[in-house]
Amino acid sequence: MRIGVLGTGVVGQTLGSGLVGLGHEVILGARDANNPKAVEWAAGAGERASTGTFADAAEFAELIVLATLWEGTENALSLAGHDRFAGKTVIDTTNPLVFGDAVPSLALGWNDSAGEQVQRWLPDAQVVKAFNIVGAPHMVHPALPGGSPDMFIAGDDETAKAAVTDILTAFGWSTIDIGGIAGSRLLEPLCILWVLYGAQTGTWNHAFKLLR
Ligand SMILES: NC(=O)c1ccc[n+]([C@@H]2O[C@H](COP(=O)([O-])OP(=O)(O)OC[C@H]3O[C@@H](n4cnc5c(N)ncnc54)[C@H](OP(=O)(O)O)[C@@H]3O)[C@@H](O)[C@H]2O)c1
User: Fold this and answer.
1) Which one, 58, 100, 139, 189, has the greatest CB density within 10 A?
2) Rg of the Cα atoms in the chain
3) Cα–Cα distance for residue pair 185/189, rounded to 1 Å
4) pTM, entire model
5) For residue 35, what is the domain's CATH number?
6) Angstrom distance (rounded) from CA 120 to CA 17
């Protein structure tokens, strides 16, 4: 599949490399086509990896991964061009974080979420919240001493969620679909819980699992 990853941070690079490893063609997009982090990533990620602008990545893609700083996300989507998302599955990894204290807080929540805001910005795309509840080093082939963790996902479109579940399965996740994109209201605070536990214990080797 042709995949556009919007974001050159640790999440974009990690998922980009993981997706290349699954055999997909990936463009890592940034504001600047010559973004040094993206160029360095592409140089080491193999022949199916390349870089471009946010618009290049979105245009190329059959499926898009959104991995931008929350406060830059609206701008990144505008730069990419909203029309380029029409009819496509968009994996939203973002968390609407406000930094300042030791543990970040959420810029919105309870009765709204970043996932819903992204879906409103991209009404013709099928947005699926995923990957936001765990640190980037565990997103691809998570290997934790306590066993295989679960990834919770949320989105309004069943076909899009099936496509995202296929990717998660290939990465070694068990996926739990919690329903529509409004479920992002529950998943984004889980990121804060993940960070809080890490800050309190000084360990970052954890993820969530639903025991039955
Ligand atoms: N880090 C983690 O472990 C983790 C885990 C789960 C979820 N998340 C979430 O995943 C997302 C990505 O996190 P990250 O740590 O990989 O990277 P990040 O530092 O949060 O974001 C980097 C990307 O944001 C873009 N960006 C920043 N300001 C922008 C602006 N004003 N306009 C347009 N684009 C802008 C940058 O574009 P340029 O490349 O052009 O500079 C870069 O591609 C975040 O929403 C984060 O909360 C992170």
Assistant:
1) 58
2) 16
3) 7
4) 0.98
5) 3.40.50.720
6) 29
Q: Cα of 71 to ligand 1 centre, how many Å?
A: 9
CA–CA dist 5, 125 (Å, integer) = 15
C-alpha 28/C-alpha 39 separation (Å) is 9
Count of domains for the chain:
1
- Residue 12 maps to a domain: yes
Amino acid symbol at 119: Q
Q: What is the pLDDT of residues 47-78, one digit of tens each?
A: 999 999 999 999 999 999 999 999 999 999 99
pLDDT at site 108? 94
In a domain? residue 212: no
Coil, helix or strand at residue 23? coil
Pocket test for ligand 1, best of 34, 69, 192 (most atoms within 8 A of CB): 69
